[in-house]
Structures are given as C-alpha cells and as structure tokens.
Amino acid sequence: MTMARTLYDKLWDAHVVAEGADGQTLLYVDRHLLHEVSTPQSFELLREDGLPVHRPATQLAVADHSVPTHDRDQPIADPQAAAQVALLEANCAQFGIEYLALDGPGQGIVHVIGPEQGFTLPGISFVCGDSHSATHGAFGTLAFGIGASECGIVMAAQALWQVKAKRMRVTFTGALQPGVTAKDMALAMIGQIGASGAVGYAIEFAGEAVRALSMEGRMTLCNMAIEAGSRTGLVAPDETTFAYLKGRPRVPQGADWDAALAYWRTLPSDTDASFDTEVTIAADAIAPHVTFGTSPDQVLPVTAAVPQGEAKLAKALAYMDLQPGEAMDGLAIDHAFIGSCTNGRIEDLRAAAAIASRGHVAAGVRALVVPGSGAVKRQAEAEGLDRIFIDAGFEWRDPGCSLCVAMNDDRLPAGARCASTSNRNFEGRQGAGARTHLMSPAMVAAAAIMGRIVDVRTMA
After folding, report:
1. What pLDDT sits at residue 460?
2. What number of H helices and E strands is found in the chain?
3. CA-CA distances (angstroms) from residue 320 to 32, 84, 418, 419, 434?
4. Does the pTM exceed 0.90?
C-alpha cells in the first residue's frame, strides 16, 4: 500500500540522490538561476578548484539587483554596479552559461524572467542565490534560495545537501473581497503566524481563494513565504498553471508537452495526505493590509490603528516615527514604489494603472513604476499603461530590483516614508533611515494619488 504524500513529499522524493548519516539528503538540482550579486564568489570557487560547470544548459543568468532603471542607453554610472554586471557576463562567457544581456529583450528580475522564459516548470527542483526563490513554487516547483558557496556547488555538482522540512498547509477558505489581492493574503498570513512562524516548514497554499488566483497572484503569495520564515512556498499545478506555461520558450513542445502534462497532473497532494501543521484563514474576511513596523509581520488591516501597549514594538515604532493608537488610514507618504519580484508583473501594473487613471500623483510625492522585466514593460506599453502612469505623474522606468533593495541608484533619503509593493520593510531596506510600508499595487497607486495611505476599496 502506497503512503499518501503531499506535493512537497513528491517533489522531494523525485530528487533524492543519496541519504546522509546526519539527516541530510543529497538532492539533484534541475535548474539554477544566477544574478550578479550572489555569484562572483561562486565562479571564483570553480576557478580555484579547476572545475567546469557540470551542465551549463541548466543554468541561466541575468543582472537585476544592482542595475540602474534609467538611461539604459548609457554606460552604468556606478563603478561597482558596472563591475558586477561586467563580471557576470564575463563569467558566463567563460563557463558556457547563457546570459540575458542588460540591453536585451529578456532582461528582468530573476524571479520574473524565470517563469516568463519557461525556465520554471512544475515538478523540477530549482535554486537561486536569492531568498525570494520561493516565488517559483507557484508552479509546483521545489524552489528555494541558496548561498553563494552553494551556487558554486550546484554549478559543479548539480546537487546539494539539504534537510527536509516539515509540511505546513495554509488554506484560504472563501473568496476575496473586491480590492483585496494576493499581497493582502500574504501579509494577513504573516501577521497571523509571525515572521518566524514557518521556520523549518515548507508551506503549501490551498483553498478556494488560492485556486482562484492567477499565476501572477500565486507567485506573489509564494514570494512572501520567506517572510514567514519558510524557504519554500508551493501551489499545486492545475489548468491555470498549464495555460500560463503552454507555448513559452524552453517549455516542452508536442509529444514532450503531453508527457510533461501527464506527470504534472500527478503532483498535487493526495487527498488523504497529512501535514505537520494546518493553518486556516478566512479569505473573505481579509481587508487590504499595510505594514506599520520594520518586520513584515508588523502588519494590520488598513482600517486598523498602530497597536497600543506593546513594549516590544517600541524600537520599530521609533524608527517608523509612529505612535501607538495612530491610524494607518490617512498617514502621509512622500514616496511610492510599484515594482519588485513580488509585484512587478503585468497584472500588478494593470491593477495600479486602474487606480492611477483616476487622478494625479499628489504634490510632494515622488512615485516610480518599475516593470519586473522587459517583457512586462513591452506588454504594459502595448496596453497603454505607461501613458496612464506618466500622465498621472508617475516615473516610468526600465526593469530591475530598484527600490526593493538599496543596492542600486534608486534609494530613498533618511526619513522618507514610502508606500511600497516590495517584500521587506526592514530598517534601511530602501535606503538608510527610510521608512517602508508594504501593501498591494492598487494600494500604493491610491496612496500616491491621495498623498496618504488610504483604503483602496473606498475609491471603487
């Protein structure tokens, strides 16, 4: 009798090479996505040991973290960023790895271009030197972030020692209200279980509200799994997944597609599979969420006020210049950012543009829209979204990580308060001393127009 297994169990079992004596398992790695920040040391390790890349065709590289999002027709002005991008290109050329050039049509954020390129597929194992690699789990992919030295190991050996996680299922019952998105689902979950609530677990997202999400929404949800402590977020592949993938580059074609589809349909968790932990959240009770502190779990419905009487929040509130009891709705902002690997996809830009079309960026607010990839930018421009944003007073940029991380020339000054679609609100994440409030794309667009945080549902 075969034991019932979860999606995570099936993915794990399919990639076991060997079991170690210390509880670790050697896992075969199908694909590795590289970027300019986490791989210089990895390539240097290969050189020091005289090792080639074992299977170059399973590797794909792109620059995103440090790249500028303007004046792409000019040389990169920042010497460090220029050196990082040039080094990635040179390393890829030396070791035979495909590199998506900064001035090419395929460039974008690693976690946006992977699915676009069909490099991300159900049933495979997938790693990248970035913690938000959980994004790719939206396809039923065993995806997780790794360190720089592990990137070198994967390039040389195509395998990695790992410890199997416990299984957590987060079920969203019911349907979302209008104006509430996958970003709100993610923030609500993190607020409920905490920033370390899923440490040691692989999360499978399930339930009616998850099944109703687009692939863009599922990627947003899995992207934020790491903010609850989990390295792996998963959604079982279904017809929505298959429709997104069909016809994309690098995706199996013809008879190979049929064979792949037959395998992918076996991946969902068995109906009688058990999980180590179950979490249930009523999707129809979720309101648009906004972070108020310096950790993603310091989050509230936009209709709520900053908690009172919690001494543990004092440091975060001091950094954010907020007081206990202060309402989130109405809090003035001076920057707005729409982009990142969490919310820089076409669906995110459509949602933000729908709000931006109703007004103009408020006086004193600077607002940036940064598409997640060249493909997203071209699609948005074909739909006229760029004109909506520009006419409303937003800056329309080239693809990159931009204001999600202060590793490029998009940075906020100390004291700036930003409505942001990114994934982390840590101290200094968008610039030393800058204050970040995480929220959905529509919520950021609404805040940019109103000059203050506002419940986007009141603008419907």
Report:
1. 65
2. 16, 19
3. 37, 32, 11, 13, 8
4. yes
